[in-house]
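ESCALATION

Customer reports they have been waiting on this structure for their group meeting. Please prioritize. Original submission:
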Amino acid sequence: MQLNIDFICHATFLLNLDGTKILFDPWFIGSAFNNQWHLFPKPIDSDREKINNPDYILISHGHEDHLHEESLRCLSKNAKIFYPYTWVDDSKHYFKEMGFNNI
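Update from on-call: job pushed to the front of the queue and completed.
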């Protein structure tokens, strides 16, 4: 079994387990919270290549620095999205509007 964990930036990590890629809390471009928060340190371009096609995207909670719409829109829509079950029903609609179907 081969396990790699890459820190991308902020709370974004990529776990690769035998070729299955799980992306945690994607925020890797742009700002958050009405342009008040900025990524530091900025992710390097090679990290961006690693995260473009995750198999799974795990969202820990709904704060914009963990559930970042601009970053999510850049990712493969084939990824399966996991998010906290306590969220309101509109969450599924939100992800579907971005093009995700495996929620």
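Sent to customer with the following note: The helical segments are 45-51, 69-73, 90-97.
Escalation resolved.
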